[in-house]
């Protein structure tokens, strides 16, 4: 009954519904809550694709930290009143939705026609998880082959902290 | 499952693009950009089922960049709000020519 396919379509429906809610919601707070729905549903699809650690940090970092940061800013600025001026006019919206919807349809058709199956990477990941565990499978690769990008990421976060402080300070 | 995940990723990316083009509230535009980043993350994870675990590592880096981008972007929004008392992007035309 609760097969992986059924669960995938359940999560996909939740994710798409939440995404439409993000775009259509009137107040920023509602938009944010729909975004949390989408993020949780995508964490579910990550689990179905055997990326357990990423599903965990999707919930903790994205839905936990980043969304709370957004909510904090919305509450701080006391937004969420003037949603009428917030939408760009009708003709532009219809045209842009038609164009990008057509592009998405073409992409979906192409991807559906190729019919990708679980490749060699899937079995390799399963073997890695069986050997090192879900976190160890990522960690061994991250701290050996990709250790320099990992360190650069640390510098990026430091720069972001300093930049955010300088920008949000009252007197520059 | 990989094909379906890629199609879902394409749909979510399109909805995010639509949101960035249509909404004028700077914070909702940021949320839609996060949605686009997440759609790309999903396709990275799906491709990792074909090509190995490097795809999952890239998602790790993308999430870090997204966190840094959210922090700096929200600081910019706060700074703009102090000057203009609004976050409607139609009100800012300082960098338009």
Structure description:
The complex is a heterodimer of chains A (172) and B (97). Helices cover 81% and strands 0% of the residues of chain A. Chain A has 172 residues and is mainly α. Chain A has a domain at 1-83: Four Helix Bundle (Hemerythrin (Met), subunit A). In chain A, α1 packs antiparallel against α2. With 97 residues, chain B is an all-alpha fold. Chain B has one domain (2-88): Helix Hairpins, CATH 1.10.287. Chain B has helices at residues 2-22, 26-51, 54-84. The longest helix of chain B is centred in the last third of the chain and has 31 residues, at 54-84. Chain B is elongated, with a radius of gyration of 16 Å. Classes of the chains: A mainly alpha (172), B mainly alpha (97). At the A-B interface, α1, α2, α3, α4 and α5 of A face α1, α2 and α3 of B.
For the termini of chain A, the CA-CA separation is: 60 Å
The rounded distance between the terminal residues' Cα atoms of chain B is: 47 Å
How much of the polypeptide of chain A forms β-strand, as a percent range? under 5%
Helix content of chain A: over 70%
* Largest beta-sheet characterization of chain B: none
Class from helix and strand fractions of chain B: mainly alpha
Q: Which protein chains make the most extensive interface, counting residues with beta carbons within 8 Å of the other chain's beta carbons?
A: A-B, 87 and 70 residues
Number of separate helices of chain B:
3
Q: Fill in the CATH topology of chain B.
A: Helix Hairpins
DSSP strand content of chain B = under 5%
Task: List segments of chain B where confidence is low: pLDDT < 50 over at least 5 consecutive residues.
Answer: none
CATH superfamily of the domain at 1-83 in chain A: NADH-ubiquinone/plastoquinone oxidoreductase chain 6, subunit NuoJ
CATH class of chain B: Mainly Alpha
* CATH architecture label of the domain at 1-83 in chain A: Up-down Bundle
Classify the oligomer.
heterodimer
The total domain count of chain B is 1
pLDDT < 50 runs, ≥5 residues of chain A? none
């Amino acid at each position: 009954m609760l097969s992986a396919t059924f669960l995938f379509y359940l999560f996909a429906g939740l994710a798409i519904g939440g995404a439409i809610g993000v775009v259509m919601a009137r107040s920023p707070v509602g938009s944010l809550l729909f975004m949390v729905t989408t993020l949780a549903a995508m964490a579910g699809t990550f689990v179905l694709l055997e990326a357990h650690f990423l599903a965990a940090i999707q919930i903790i970092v994205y839905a936990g930290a980043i969304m709370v940061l957004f909510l904090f800013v919305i509450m701080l600025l006391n937004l969420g009143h003037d949603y009428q001026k917030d939408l760009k006019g009708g003709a532009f919206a219809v045209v842009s939705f038609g164009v990008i919807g057509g592009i998405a349809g073409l992409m979906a058709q192409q991807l559906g026609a190729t019919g990708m199956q679980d490749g060699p990477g899937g079995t390799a990941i399963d073997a890695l998880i069986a050997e090192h565990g879900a976190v160890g499978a990522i960690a061994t690769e991250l701290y050996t082959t990709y250790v320099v990008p990992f360190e650069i990421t640390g510098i990026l976060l430091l720069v972001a902290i300093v930049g955010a402080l300088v920008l949000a300070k009252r007197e520059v | 499952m990989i094909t379906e995940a890629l199609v879902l990723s394409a749909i979510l990316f399109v909805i995010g693009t639509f949101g960035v083009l249509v909404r004028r509230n700077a914070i909702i535009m940021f949320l839609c950009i996060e949605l686009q980043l997440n759609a790309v993350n999903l396709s990275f994870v799906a491709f990792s089922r074909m090509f190995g675990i490097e795809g999952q590592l890239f998602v790790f880096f993308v999430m870090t960049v997204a966190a840094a981008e959210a922090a700096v972007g929200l600081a910019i929004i706060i700074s703009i709000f102090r000057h203009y008392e609004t976050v409607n992007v139609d009100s800012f035309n300082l960098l338009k020519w």
